[in-house]
Amino acid sequence: MEDRASELAAERTRLERQRETEDQAIDLGAQRADLEQRLSENTEAILALFDAAGEVGIPAEQFARLVGVSRQSLYRWREVARRLRESRESR
Question: Taking a C-beta distance cutoff of 8 angstroms, is the pair 46, 74 a contact?
Fold first, then answer.
């Protein structure tokens, strides 16, 4: 009888830990989705400012340093944004 009670207690503990882990995973997933959205919005804002910076004579290399990314990242982001825009327009 004690063995069965012990087994049930162990199973209950395992299930509680499993549920806690699942809840943490759900929370982390929601946080990640929020971060991805904020990162996307930040990237779009940087690209808009990048274009404005070029118009007022700020070199790409300097602008990249100011926002903390490489010049190559700026150009790659701009190319990806252009392709996405074209894809949306062609639908």
Answer: yes
Rounded CA Rg of the chain: 25
Structure tokens at 25: 């995973």
**pLDDT tens, 29-67?**
999 999 988 988 998 899 999 999 999 999 999 999 999
Q: How many domains does the chain have?
A: 1
CB 81 within 8 A of CB 44: yes
**φ/ψ of residue 70, rounded to 5:** -80, 155
Parent domain of 27: 2-89
pTM over 0.90: no
Alpha-carbon 6 to chain mean position: 44
